[in-house]
Amino acid sequence: MIEIKNLCKTYSSASGNVEALRDINLTIEDGEIFGIIGLSGAGKSTLVRCINLLERPTSGSVIIDGQDITVLPRPELLKMRRSISMIFQGFNLLEQRSVLRNVTFPLEISGVKGQAAKLKAMELLKVVGLEEKAAAYPAQLSGGQKQRVAIARALASDPRYLLCDEATSALDPNTTRSILELLRSINEKMGVTIIVITHEMKVIDQICDRVAVIDQSRIAESGRVSDVFANPQSQIARELILPQDRTAIETSGGKKIRIIFDGMQSKEPVISNMTLDCQVPVNIMFADTKDFDGIVYGHMIIELPTDAHQAEKVIAWLKNSDVKWKEED
Amino acid sequence: MLSETFYKLWNAGILQRGVWETIYMTVISTAISYVIGLPLGVVLNITDREGIYPIPWFNRLLGMIVNFFRSIPFIILMVAMLPVANFIVGTSLGNKAMIVMLVIAASPYIARMVESSLKEVNAGVIEAAQSMGANNFQIVTKVLLPEAKPSLIMGAVISMVTILGYSAMSATIGGTGLGQIAISYGHQRFNPDIKWICVFLTVIIVQIIQEVGTAVAHRTDKRITK
């Protein structure tokens, strides 16, 4: 378990202090995939680097399996880092080492050498599906393959935690999907707790159990992905979930209603029922629904007719139904 | 005639000796300079504000010392350092003493070359090693130096050519080699043919160093896909 308590990070520069993280409190349970999402500059990369102390927090504590690592002496900290692996947006492979020797690198650092290290590395390359590339060099690999090597390398020290810093941001959508699938299977089969840093909602969608939304150096909200996705509380979460160009949708000036699917009405044809019952046409302006374990979550924004009477009719219908909805401005 | 002069010098064994002495001085000086310059370059790199073990005040001090030696023109440094050579090798004449001068002049130069090669190593790779729990010694020996290897080899080639140039200059105060032949047989005896023969041989040596060095750097660079 990773507990982050009252964590603050301030950078001081000539032009004044910059608060990168303000009073962060998070608990990451064993075995889960925890997402941290935010726009660039929100502080998420700093936050993930505070977990393995690549960045020293200005105040607060990082407690890993009951041990506050901010007070550990350096040799102990270096040992602790072997149980918290990390993968990066830029892959960060050693360019002058073969794939195999990249994977044995963390073993070398911890003093495991020779045949034992080689066997372990080959086993991990099999896990990521790249055993035939063992003798290749990073320059000969595609982005997705490089990230697979980086994952194999990260697993070499038998970590309990895996930090992923924008690990799929440099990859195309198909490769992103396959890397995320790999991460999920590693989480399930090896029991590695995974912390995913991203700016893309679809990454959170695809693999995370819980999510924290970070904005302007603070945690704006956190919770189960399905809850946050179905009913985002903070402005930033809404912005991340709903499309950016929402304001650009042309409207004829009618009232806008946001309908929230939180798993209750997945089998019910809500919109059809509404239009048929009210005999009022509505305009669907935006819809984004996702299937979580067979239940539908998501949003739809509809526009009501400008005619006040017709609009009233729909609102009355919504009030009577068990549909979750909200008037948008 | 140029070729006549060449054969005369060749048959007397003067050119062979000159070439050998130039290569000998250059190689030995480069090797010793790297023993000093390489660790110095590593220290300059890691103690930098952006380095893995930042000690800004120390880095600035060391940088100033290195700059001090680098800013003295070699010919002046040579004369000034004669007593130092005398102290270290017991003489201020001949190739032994010249090697001391060359090392004093080249080490700070090499330190800067090494420093800049190490600076090219992707900071992300260093961060990755840190995230794995590597200590600073492991980062230097397993990440910084191996990852910078092709650039370090190219730097060594440039340093070697520079040292070869310096070695010729050392002929003015008692060094030997092609520089000495050019000066005492060519310049001082008004024989331009000998000067040109020495220039020609030096060019060949430089070309060989450059070509071999570039080929080695290329071959060992795993970033290049064939």
Characterize the structure shown.
The complex is a heterodimer of chains A (329) and B (226). Chain A has eleven helices and 14 strands. Chain A has 329 residues and is an alpha/beta fold. In chain A, the strands form three sheets. In chain A, strands 6-7-8-3-9-10 form a six-stranded mixed beta sheet, sandwiched between helices. In chain A, strands 2-1-4-5 form a four-stranded antiparallel beta sheet, covered by helices on one side. The longest helix of chain A has 18 residues, at 173-190. The model of chain A has no long low-confidence stretch (mean pLDDT 89). Chain B has 226 residues and is mostly helical. Chain B has a single domain, classed as MetI-like (MetI-like fold). Chain B contains eleven helices and no strands. The model of chain B has no long low-confidence stretch (mean pLDDT 93). Classes of the chains: A alpha/beta (329), B mainly alpha (226). Chain A binds chain B through residues 52, 54, 77-82, 84-86, 88, 90, 92-98, 105-106, 108-110, 137-140, 150, 157, 163, and chain B through 122, 124-125, 127-135, 138, 142-143, 146-147, 149-150, 220-225.
